[in-house]
Amino acid sequence: MNSPRMRMAALLALLAGGLPLPALADPMAEIVGRWRDSDGESEIAIARCGAALCGRVVWLKQPRFDRFNPDPKLRARSLLGLQVLSGFRPDGASLLAGEGYNPADGKTYRTTLELAAPDSLVVRGCVLGGLICDDDTWTRR
User: Fold this and answer.
1) Cβ distance 76 to 82 under 8 Å?
2) Angle at 115 between CA 111 and CA 21, to 5 degrees
3) Which of 32, 25, 27 is nearest to 141 (CA)?
4) What is the pTM of this model?
5) Contact present, 97 and 86 (Cβ < 8 Å)
6) pLDDT tens string 68-102
7) Which of 4, 29, 46, 116 yields a CA-CA distance of 20 to 30 A from 76?
């Protein structure tokens, strides 16, 4: 197998499918974990919920309540344990899209999650079809 033709044939066979391709990273698996928001007031655990990802508040620096919820009966509930992220699935090469509930105003927004670095997650909520967006960078715990 020292002839140039034999080496070329072997190389072409390998390139044509003789070698297994490396597995592509699962963007959902990379985001699963515990994240602290940028102001250090809360931590959210992101986990699989069926075929999607969701996130719950698992730690609060100080007790907080859902006081801006549009339903008056829910305004006294603790934010601890509250699901604030739901339905996140891949949407493009590096984004996951779903819905995010913002306890600061009691509204739910179209939200994207993007892993900016292994321990840095950009959470972006948008309104008006993406014309107005606000983002926060969370840190892996």
Assistant:
1) no
2) 120
3) 32
4) 0.80
5) no
6) 999 999 999 999 999 999 999 999 778 999 999 99
7) 46
**Contact predicate 119/97, CB 8 Å:** no
CA distance 57 to 63: 12
Looking at the chain, the whole-number percentage of residues with pLDDT higher than 90 is 74
Helix locations, 4-141, DSSP H:
4-13, 27-31
CB atoms under 10 Å from CB of 4, counted, come to 7
Dihedrals φ, ψ of 73, to 5°? -70, -20
- One DSSP character per residue, 85-115 reads EEEEEE-SSSEEEEEEEETTTTEEEEEEEEE
Domains of the chain: 27-140 (2.40.128.520)
